[in-house]
Specification:
6-stranded mixed sheet; binds copper (II) ion; binds CU-O-CU linkage; 5-stranded mixed sheet; mainly beta; 5 helices
């Protein structure tokens, strides 16, 4: 049933009769439809036309008022358009994070990255399918005062991607200072799904930080677990709360933290309804008691406040989970309970949207397409001591700027089965990310006994593996197999752990798409 009639509203009215067929999604009244018609004229927030985009993205030092008292020194991206509509490059209100860049599939994007930082940097477009020289590989980083010109066409589906520095050995420290922004792509398929937009589409960038007594970000971390702060920032703000109406919101969530993974859940016990992942919409809404979101991953969430009463509130929080292995420590540790964002229901609203039972049609990669189905390309995670300092490795080697080993040379435009194993004797959870690609999780093989199994069982229902992904979470004892169609752009791309301290310390490698 992934075939939309030309009149989706009529289709949904009809589908509403078949409530039984979708009750498996968790008992929400998915097909609920109220009598109110949609507004005859769409509010001005609706944007269907995107032009090619040209902008200067400047990175520079600045300050932000994050805590009461002293301002905090930050590094920030700011955007200045030279071509395109103003709504295609807008800051997040009240945030020191980078602008939200909005564009449509098929559009050309030109960005001059102007580096006004006191040190070298480069911008990576996380999740985009673009040529290697556009991807922000550290070999392209520019010195203080320099610039880099990007010029690419957006091939990706509608979805929320993001950008951040990828400077050699300095990605983590530059992101922690504030360099990150959202890159949101739309396409006709998404527009057809008629999702909440404008004031009802909320970007939520989750990050954790620690501050010193002068309100400055303190950046100290354990090499094993990475940087874990005690203060949650949403879009760069502490104690985030949002006034909402009794209606449906679309939450577009990025875990932009360096090292902290969240087990997202609603405080009122309602399921989290996921409509999209890293690479855009999933075919049908997915209802889960909680959802795991590790650094680098995104979620598109349908948040239905229409049955709430004015004066009530609901909190998006992170539930307890246990990393296991060497993943403990930090204050608070990864897996600690944290409140993230409060939604205060302050005004009534009549709602005309209802959750579409079918959101889009997904191309499915099948194992039969994979030339190497019997012998997946394997990238193990291992641990090693580098002169007394513990380190994590991917594919058995530290990072080298320009080289690959044989299993990192991949044919272009070819479907293959790849796997990452986290089954060495010393382990912890990691978010694993491959550049320039969206892929599909084929299979997870979890641990089978002991505390690893107990810890796994406490997170596994929160994996949302049904859509396109560019980053996945892997627990101790776990193997993740995924199907990827390799890029059609030859060249050197990165893959790494998205715990940014791990990435900078060595848990990163190149893979080369062969000509
Ligand atoms: Cu957000 Cu190299 O990645
Ligand atoms: Cu990336
Ligand atoms: Cu890691």
């Amino acid at each position: 049933m992934h075939d939309f009639s030309s009149d989706r509203r009529q289709f949904l009215l009809n589908a509403g009769l078949a409530v039984g067929s979708i009750s498996a999604l968790g008992g929400l009244a998915f097909a609920r439809r109220r009598a109110e018609a949609p507004p005859a004229l769409l509010p001005s927030g609706r944007v269907r036309n995107f032009s090619d985009l040209s902008l200067t993205l400047t990175a520079a030092a600045g300050t932000a008022n994050i805590l009461p008292g002293n301002p905090t020194n930050v590094w920030r991206y700011s955007g200045a358009l030279t071509e395109g509509h103003a709504y295609q490059c807008q800051p997040i209100a009240g945030s020191y994070l980078g602008p939200i860049i909005r564009t449509a599939r098929g559009r050309r994007v030109r960005v001059r990255f102007q580096n006004n930082l006191p040190e070298e940097s480069i911008v990576h477009w996380h999740g985009l399918d673009i040529p290697a020289d556009q991807d922000g590989h550290p070999s392209y980083q520019v010195d203080a005062g320099g610039h880099y010109d990007y010029d690419f066409t957006v091939n990706n589906r509608a979805g929320m991607y993001w950008f951040h520095p990828h400077t050699h050995m300095k990605t983590a420290s530059q992101v922690v200072k504030g360099l990150a922004g959202l890159f949101i792509v739309t396409d006709p398929e998404e527009q057809k799904a008629d999702l909440p937009y404008g004031d009802y589409e909320l970007p939520l960038v989750i990050q954790d930080r620690a501050f010193d007594e002068n309100n400055q970000v303190s950046y100290t971390f354990g090499p094993l677990v990475g940087y874990l702060g005690n203060t949650v920032l949403i879009n760069g703000q502490t104690n985030f709360s949002k006034s909402c109406k009794t209606r449906i919101y679309r939450l577009r969530i990025l875990n932009g933290s360096n090292a902290r993974t969240y087990k997202l859940a609603w405080s009122d016990g309602s399921p989290i309804v996921v409509i999209g992942t890293d690479g855009g919409l999933v075919e049908s809404p997915i209802s889960r008691p909680y959802v795991m979101l590790s650094p680098g991953e995104r979620l598109d969430v349908w948040a239905d406040f229409s049955a709430k009463s004015v004066g009530s509130s609901v909190t998006l929080r992170s539930l307890a989970w246990t990393p296991g292995g060497f993943g403990g420590g930090g204050s608070p540790p990864n897996g600690a309970v944290m409140d993230l964002a409060v939604f205060n229901i302050t005004a009534p609203s009549t709602e005309y949207l209802s959750l579409p039972p079918c959101l889009c049609t997904l191309e499915r990669l099948s194992i039969a397409q994979a030339a190497n189905a019997a012998s997946p390309r394997t990238f193990p995670i291992t641990y090693y001591l580098n002169g007394g300092t513990p380190n994590w490795l991917l594919n058995g080697a530290t990072y080298d700027l320009n080289t690959t080993v044989p299993n990192e040379n991949v044919p272009r435009n070819t479907v293959e089965l790849w796997q990452v194993t986290n089954t060495a004797s010393q382990v912890m959870p990691h978010p694993i990310h491959f550049h320039g690609r969206q892929f599909q999780i084929y299979q997870r093989i979890g641990p089978t006994s002991g505390s690893a199994l107990t810890n796994y069982n406490n997170v596994k229902d929160g994996y949302v593996d049904d859509g396109w992904k560019d980053t996945f979470f892997i627990m101790p004892g776990e193997t993740v197999k995924f199907l990827v169609r390799t890029s059609d752009y030859p060249g050197l791309y990165l893959y790494h752990c998205h715990i940014l301290e791990h990435e900078d310390m060595s848990m990163m490698r190149n893979f080369r798409v062969l000509p």
